[in-house]
Amino acid sequence: MNVLDTTEQKVSEKVSEKVSAPLDTERGSGDTLLARFGRWWGRKGEGEPQAPAAKPVAPEAIALSPRVLRRQREQLRQCFDARLTDGAANAAAQAWRQEYEAAGEAARQAMLGVLAEVAAPGSEAATVHASLSQALSNARIRFFKRLAALHGQHGDSVCGLHFLIHLRADMLRWHKRIPGLRALDDDLEALFSNWFDVGLLELQPITWDSPASLLEKLIRYEAVHEISSWTDLRNRLDSDRRCYAFFHPRIPREPLIFVEVAFVPEMAANVQALLDELAPLEDLRRVKWAIFYSISNTQAGLRGVSFGNFLLKRVIEELQREFPKLKQFATLSPIPGFADWLRRQDAAAVAGMLGEKRLARWTERHGDAPADGAAWFAALAPDSADAVVRDTALTLAAHYLVREQKDGLPADAVARFHLGNGACVERLNWGADLSRKGRAQGGGMMVNYLYVPDALDDNLARLGAGNPRVSRAVGKLL
């Protein structure tokens, strides 16, 4: 069965969850690997370090001419009104896609505005009728299915499914500017949750001998720990490491997710040590742990889309086929939302999480407690050797990961992913990532999520009941 042949009823019932990074344009294939990477790192190293540039502001949508507006409305109505197999509707969808791909940002915003208008109900009062709402949703789904089934007009054109990924990336960027995009995005996200379920994806190992274009994408997409040099890349693909990529069969040249794994004798607590290029190779006959230290989602248009609950289980099964005696699996994961969350807390909220005893220890050692969450974050220096500072920070991080929720799921995106894959919050690590990014986002802390293959289903059920699995050590911090 074609992976796009999914029922509209199933689509409407999918629940979504998850992460991603934008894609740069791919270079030509004539360059050698060394030349291409040389230019890449040369550009990265040029000049003195500079402050991050301000994000470019997207131009406002232009006003389409009356003639273009009429034509686009007619094209889209034909797509929405006709049956799925109607040839004229498919031709109209192809024409709309070609015009969209050729347009600049301002024109694309205008086209999305017309799409949202045509896809919307005729009046607000009509939306109270469930049957009309469902009919409109089905029409939107048919439109997206048309686009997914289409191929570009040229050999180098992306397939229809990849075009939809780019289309949704634009929708996510501009949904606050364009009324009506939310309903379109909800339907497209639900479709993607079916089409990109982990059971439909292909898992492939990435090695030093993989094609240069694929290795270059690993560098570009690495969203957790930047690959800083040629030696760094080689280290991550050495004999005591593994790297895997998930692909969709309709987009065989475009990796969707990269998973990087290190084999170590004990559960890793520090990413600097894990990525040390001078560290000796681990003896694979003696290693006891497989550590997932980087999981990068590559497509901005797949943000928030669930790949299914057992994505890492696929990787674990692959590792166990290669190493039958390997039994222990964990992550060394960042806590990217911790700093922003803590800065939003007031003094009373922080005091409630710390409790009287921890707060008393703080005031005894450091005097008056900080005035609010932002002051607390500033006081918790990531490289401090003070046990009170360490215990305070770990306690607040535990509350954030386990207790803080959004829509009934963990508020932290990484926690949401791993707990949604059946993991347990096993251990919090102080001073685990002292990079600029690690300090700024997670206060230098990282967390181990433990994966026990036989416990994944039970842990997932506990998460659904609002009681995520945590270790005894983490439980003592709550």
TrEMBL record:
Residues 7-17 have a biased composition (Basic and acidic residues). Residues 123-196 form the Malonyl-CoA decarboxylase N-terminal domain. Residues 199-451 form the Malonyl-CoA decarboxylase C-terminal domain. Residues 1-27 are annotated as: Disordered. InterPro entries: Malonyl_CoA_deC, Malonyl_CoA_deC_C, Malonyl_CoA_deC_C_sf, MCD_N, MCD_N_sf. Pfam families: MCD, MCD_N. One of its GO terms (molecular function) is malonyl-CoA decarboxylase activity. GO terms for biological process: acetyl-CoA biosynthetic process; fatty acid biosynthetic process; malonyl-CoA catabolic process. This is Malonyl-CoA decarboxylase.
